[in-house]
Amino acid sequence: MGRPAWLNEEETRAWHAFMAAGALLNRRLDQQLKEGAGISHLQYEILVRLSAAPDRELRMTELADALYNSKSGLTYQITQLEKAGLVHRRSCANDVRAVYACLTDAGQRVLEQAAPGHVALVRELLIDVLTPDQLTAVADGLGAASRRMLGQP
Amino acid sequence: MGRPAWLNEEETRAWHAFMAAGALLNRRLDQQLKEGAGISHLQYEILVRLSAAPDRELRMTELADALYNSKSGLTYQITQLEKAGLVHRRSCANDVRAVYACLTDAGQRVLEQAAPGHVALVRELLIDVLTPDQLTAVADGLGAASRRMLGQP
DNA sequence: AGCTCCTGGTTTGAATTTGAACAAGGCCGG
DNA sequence: CCGGCCTTGTTCAAATTCAAACCAGGAGCT
């Protein structure tokens, strides 16, 4: 390819900012959720997906894909959430292999209680810091990058 | 605050794209570096910082801060890198408590051998996917967000 | 010196993540 | 219906991460 081998100053700035923001933001969100609701950021995301799904339940694999997480990692987390009573497993009638993770009422309550503070923090630390143009650029640019990575696995 | 409680469609798109890109990119980079050079992405970043530092050495704390990583996490990684012969520890004459992590020649070689492929992948998966405007917006916007998070610890 | 508080790194143990191996069902051509 | 092959989810051991507790060593004050 005719691409330059290294990154110029602007590209380096973007790359570093991207990595730094990701690391810092994740740590903050994790901390807040653990203190406030006793769940990790990953667990919060699991609850969000389940809550938004029809019948508040999803197959393990669907969930793993949606979270860009390994299957074994998800098995672990669902087990934890099940112990905490926020989720329960249900096996599928059609396909014996399949397992549905279902959000319990307790899980829904924890989610509803945690969501406002979580969203407020996402806003404060990221969304509201960006100008409208930057917001659009991030959505478009990083959205394209994500799709690209999902496309060529 | 008079801020809306939830995120609108555009904001949600940006937020999801940001999280997805971070997760996917990290996984890819980690994979490539492990296959190609036998080191993790975090270890690669450690080598990069050391290589760029005067005398190719940095204090443990400086390194931990630069990587947005916990001190204990860094202790672990430096121990691993030391076992692999890519880094060695040196205690400071002035302050007995302080420890310098120094890049060895072997470490420098591993870095030089891994860097081109790594940069090429960063380019392919992120940098070259962004338009020039998007690149600037990411650098500015996420840079501002990072500084903000570092400012109010 | 003696005392207290701050700093730099390490240790420790629990929680989590990872990837490979596994068990069991499905799916499909022969 | 059989056999090979793909898919689902779990299990397992090893590697990594995290946070809290822990050692010293400095720094400043009396």
From TrEMBL, chains A, B:
It comes from the Bacteria. Residues 11-147 form the HTH marR-type domain. PROSITE patterns: HTH_MARR_2. PANTHER family: MARR FAMILY REGULATORY PROTEIN, TRANSCRIPTIONAL REGULATOR, MARR FAMILY. This is MarR family transcriptional regulator.
